[in-house]
Amino acid sequence: MNYNTLKLPFSVLLARVGVKSPLRVLHFITFRCNLHCKYCGLWRTPRKELSTEQIKKAMDEFADAGTLFWTFTGGEPLLRKDIGELADYAKKLFPIVTITTNGILLKKRIDEIKSVNYLTVSIDGPKEVTDFNRGEGTFDKAVEGIKTARKRNIDVVINAVISKANTKNNFEGIKKLIEIALELDCKLTFSVVYSDQFNKKHVKKLFPSKKELKNAFKIIEDTKKSKPGFIMFSDPCIDMLKNPRKQESCLAGKLFCDLLPDGTVAPCYFKEELGVDGLKYGFVEAFKMLPEIKNCLCVNTCYIELNCILSLNPASVKENLLKYITFIGR
Question: Are strands 118-122 and 247-250 parallel, antiparallel or unpaired?
Fold first, then answer.
């Protein structure tokens, strides 16, 4: 394992006395997308994007500040013509580099991004569920992309959004997705439908009931117990998703942040209004200027898991350490 990962526990301890360290950056490299998923609004909000050289500058600054994990997301990152060049550049700087994609362009561009540690591909269930949520033909193209990646020995984590589409008919969509992920030799994780600044006018009808959500997580937890290492988020994270509650102090803006397409550095996706212009102040300096986040109610799997890990929750640390030992060798 890269010795830089030893920085993590020290950075966590220093954060408790007010010393910030951007251990993970989630880079929304573009808001453009080739799909119009029912629960997403980013594609409705075009945004100016950093150039290749500006992104490299941002990565250099964050690497010098001790960043360990870099994730390219969107929108659809593979719409950027320079994504392969940027992925290779990031891999020289950070121990863990990942790309989150809808998978539509994977088959075409897989050889450009093969340097990453793993890919996260969005599929919500079998064909009828995924095509309903994301558009006709998306399931087949995403599966084709996943198969292409696995043939090249690139690890893939499938991420599904829990919604009415995959909880109906006695959770048929979730159950079938578990079978699909196993057949494709992929790991699996889940998000829940949430309302944000971009989709709140369109998303409410997709919310499952509290009972449906609770029962969905029961299926996921049972699968996690019966198939160790397959479900890729920790028990404390699942508990927070099942029973949302305000976090007295969030570590967004202290130990992790988001980089938006135009160079804004924000604590997280939901706090864009608190963001600071990285082009104007410098990207790490912008991170240091972010305000403290308190009493935040979050339902985003990624941010919840990060808070569990970076607060040194023993169960989350153990599970994620095993996960990254698996992926970091790439």
Answer: unpaired
Of 182, 180, 309, 181, residue with least CA distance to 235 = 309
Tell me which residue of 326, 304, 325, 308 sits closest to 317, measured CA to CA.
308
Residue 142 is part of which domain span? 3-328
Angle (CA) 31-104-168 rounded to 5° is 90
Burial class (CB in 10 A: 0-12, 13-18, 19+), 225: exposed
Considering Cα of 233, then 239, then 243, then 249, what sign does the dihedral take? negative
CA nearest 185: which of 146, 234, 223?
146
Contact 115, 94 (CB under 8 A): no
Q: pLDDT (tens digit, 9 = 90+) per residue, 203-249?
A: 778 888 889 999 999 999 999 999 999 999 999 999 988 888 777 77
The type of residue at 282 is: G
Contact between 142 and 130 (Cβ < 8 Å): yes
Buried b / exposed e over 162-200, threshold 16 CB at 10 Å, is bbbbbbeeebebbbbbbebbeebebbbbbbbbbbeebbe
Q: Pseudo-torsion of CA 79, 80, 81, 84, nearest 10°?
A: -110
The tokens describing 244, both together, are 């949302």
Does the N-terminal peptide bond of residue 75 adopt cis geometry, omega within 30 degrees of 0? yes
What is the reported pTM?
0.92
Q: Which residue, among 277, 174, 288, has the nearest Cα to 231 in the 3D structure?
A: 174
Residue pair 122/134 in contact (Cβ under 8 Å)? The answer is: yes
Residue 143 sits in a domain whose CATH number is 3.20.20.70
Strands (E), 251-298: 256-259, 264-266, 276-277, 293-296
Domain count of the fold of the chain: 1
**20 near 286, Cβ under 8 Å?**
no
What pLDDT, in 10s, does the model give residues 98-147? Answer: 999 999 999 999 999 999 999 999 999 999 999 999 999 999 999 999 99
